[in-house]
Amino acid sequence: MARWRRDWESVMRHYQPGRDELLAAGLAAAEKAHGRRPERVLDVGGGPGTTAEAVLRRWPDAHITVLDVDPVLLALTATVLPHVRTVRADLGTAQWLAPAGGPYDVVLALMTVHYLPEDRVRDWYAEARQLLRPGGLLLVGDVMRDAPSTAPPLADTGVDPWTAWWTMLAGEPAMAPLLRERATALAGLVCAEFAAPVDWHRETAWRAGFSDVTVLHRRADHALMAFRRRWTADERQRARRGHRHLLRRPSLPRTTPSGRVGGSGGLRRCRP
Ligand SMILES: C[S@@+](CC[C@H](N)C(=O)[O-])C[C@H]1O[C@@H](n2cnc3c(N)ncnc32)[C@H](O)[C@@H]1O
């Protein structure tokens, strides 16, 4: 298990340049936005829980939920992180909302939204908003191409790390039942390979009820954006009446300068 999850991180670093710095920037922003360590975190499309584990290293007392459609990846999460809640749900419709639970301080989606088609991503922002408490933070890290990529293509070494990882897993006889379950669960799911510029995400999230949009990290074609869930007038009024402390609103860190560094990014072939 440990080796598969370690190798998963190597694979993901290959496709998502600057991944560690990107996550660190997101978690630091969440601390700053809340003025304390967030307590409830949802990792959407959290895969084998390697991000959840990194979050727990920084926030050991956090309650984390990992939601994913893939039973194999969820099993890896559950085995290694038994205290993390795992939820199997498909983001393809709004039905993922009910099992996801909430409200959360932070909702995180790393390399996940590009699996969904544009219309679903639009709706997904509005749905993610429903899972956040007022003032909660949404962190989205994915391919966000502002212009046709000028970065050189990934070196063709003849090995696709994603396929190699799954082939390695399939070589383990104990995984056979889960892999069969996976084949059924993922039948009919198509990866949209959606990629939109930062401004598209900014506008879409604003329409969905978020404000204080910040680009926390950029590298090659990848960005991490933070969105704060806006308060409704009603929520603000209720908070004024009862809980003044809820109105305190620490600021988000300033946007980091954008830059094209290193090789090309992007999970070229996403295969849910
Ligand atoms: C490239 S992986 C990223 C995993 C994890 N966020 C990370 O960064 O290591 C994309 C994840 O999204 C999940 N996913 C893709 N389509 C999904 C869907 N329709 N519903 C739920 N999860 C989905 C996949 O199963 C996979 O775990």
Automatic annotation (TrEMBL):
Pfam families associated with the record: Methyltransf_25 (PF13649)
Residue ranges of every copy of the Methyltransferase domain listed in the record: 41-136
Positions of region (Disordered): 238-272
UniProt keywords, alphabetically: Methyltransferase, S-adenosyl-L-methionine, Transferase
Gene Ontology molecular function: methyltransferase activity
GO biological process: methylation
Feature: compositional bias, Basic residues: 238-248
InterPro entries in the cross-refs: Methyltransf_25, SAM-dependent_MTases_sf
Bias (Low complexity): 249-259
Stated name of the protein: Class I SAM-dependent methyltransferase
